[in-house]
Amino acid sequence: SLYNGASYQNTDGRKVLYLNGSLHSYAETPALPIRAISFSIMCWIKVLSLPSNLPVYIYSDWSEPHQFRIFIQRSYLICANLRKRGGLDRVYLCAGKIIPSKWMHVALTWSREKKEGILYIDGIIQGCWCYAINAAFSVITHDERLLCSNQSRLRKKLVS
């Protein structure tokens, strides 16, 4: 279902969801039991002009407090947020600036077994957040990858 100015349009030879920037313009998608499964959420986005009111939600759920969000935040960074019960952040990553009028592929993967969230932009890992059992949250973004296990953590510089 589409609401408040949301529509489907043909752009660049593809049918796309167009959100016209009006307040509360959105589309509904089927719900998933994200607290009980591993999952990936991905989408292609094309921001026609930089928004003046931030944050701008790209993909989010409606629960209170929200369980997950992919959004545009300060300095026009693409962010991903995944929460555990009670509203505490389990994953919070921001990376990859929005480039107006350019298609960008954004993906968030969550491994329930590894308790690891990874943010990809255009197929490149931009950040990884691992929540190890009996350990605090840990985050590495941009050019480092956090490798996680229940026993240890290791930072490894990505080689380009």
Automatic annotation (TrEMBL):
Domain of life of the source: Eukaryota
Pfam family example for this protein? Laminin_G_3
Q: Which InterPro entries does the annotation name?
A: ConA-like_dom_sf
Q: What name is this protein filed under? A: LamG domain-containing protein
